[in-house]
Amino acid sequence: MGSRVTRLIRNFNLENRAHREISKTKPKAAPRHPASSSSLQEDIAEIHQKNDPLLSMLKDVYVESKDPDPQAEAVPEVKKVEEEMQRRALKYSLPGEPYGFCDVTDVPKGKLSLVEALTALNNHKRLPKTWTPEKLAQEYSLDPKDAKALTEFFFPFDIKIIPPKAEETKQIKDS
């Protein structure tokens, strides 16, 4: 029923509204740029024309180039390869293949695997006097600055239980 009413309102006086819209004066188009085709051709001809003063100045330019020493470039590449090859075996890994991480057998020096990071943080949390940032840096081949930041800013398994404020609150009890 509602669609019939909306159709009647929409189609009311439709032809008169259409004729009124069509008979309105149309806005004038914006004026075109006053460039004629002859001036465009002149510009193109001017672009392709040789400019003798510029050519003579270009002939006076002398560029001298020397290739870099090939031995100087080879040395940094060798150092990068040696740095990448410095790897260490994993201290701890996941048992079996439950998560698909078994193919990782070694890590670059200065980096930790996820399991090693959690183990190191847990050891530091349980025994902070034994597992100092210096010992963690030595044990896992880390930069001392990174080991200090690791122990300072990351806390594994830190659960805080907030006790209720009043004794009137209901608590769940074992049944």
From TrEMBL:
Residues 16-41 are annotated as: Disordered. Coiled coil: none annotated. GO terms for cellular component: mitochondrion. GO terms for biological process: mitochondrial respiratory chain complex I assembly. Pfam families: UPF0240. Binds calmodulin. Interacts with NDUFAF3. Belongs to the NDUFAF4 family. PANTHER family: NADH DEHYDROGENASE [UBIQUINONE] 1 ALPHA SUBCOMPLEX ASSEMBLY FACTOR 4, UPF0240 PROTEIN. This is NADH dehydrogenase [ubiquinone] 1 alpha subcomplex assembly factor 4.
